[in-house]
Amino acid sequence: MFRWDRNRGLDPRTDFEEIYRNLSMYDFPWDFTQALSFALFRTYAVPSVGGLLSESRGFDDTQKRYDDTALLLECPLARGFDSAEGKTALRRINQMHRSYDISNDDMLYVLATFVVVPKRWIDDYGWRRLTYDEVTASVHYYRKLGRHMNIKDIPETYDEFADLLDSYEAEHFAYDPGGRRVADLTLNLLATFYPRPVRPAVRLFSRALMDKPLLEAFEYDEPSAAVRAASRGAMRARAAVVRVLPPRLRAKDFQHSRRMKSYPPEAVVVAELGTFPAGCPVPHSA
Length: 286
What we know:
Layout: H1 16-27, H2 29-43, H3 47-55, H4 62-79, H5 84-98, H6 104-125, H7 132-148, H8 158-172, H9 177-191, H10 199-208, H11 212-218, H12 225-243
Helix pairs in contact: 1-2, 1-7, 2-6, 3-9, 4-5, 6-7, 6-8, 9-10, 10-12
């Protein structure tokens, strides 16, 4: 079986959970992990998002925040929206979000990053491009997630999601000390997944994959053209190697990955993930 046959014959309007699960846990597990990390990273450049994340102190233990976020998002994907664990994860996500004053526009933007950023990442660095049906399935998957989160006015197509993301970033990307703090903490965490001697290079490599508006929003120095070319060349070389590997036969999930460090893999209790604020802990002006 060729890897690109895995989703053949599935209907993106009704089988979107299975299609998206195949993409993120079989065909592109590493790419989706990286892309979704960068998707969340982009949200920090919106001051109302990055500032709130910093003020809430949820990133003080960055590893736990990273693990909780990934585990909660993976639960409905791996086990199904209608499973007991999937429902518990969605309930936890909603309980946390309801504790803060978050606008529907910001929620829509974050949802759009989950749809658009992985597709663009795989266009640039994946071992193959996503098919039209796979992109459509991704849209349906996140539309369903958004409905479970009571997000209003969710786009219906990929192009609508992409237009929303691009226009929101053009209007809202700006420097904020809280957003920069969260970005630094996240960048430092991502570097810890690699041996200590190469961590400075990992940080530089990560910045080389960021576009200019994102760098400017964090006031990061822009890497040289040579560093950008080397970083993107390395990504495409990796794609060429992955392209000739045999298909993955076992799902690769976050719960059992080496990046998840906050809990023993078999001791994850979904109902205990995340934070439990009593009301909004962030002070607001009158």
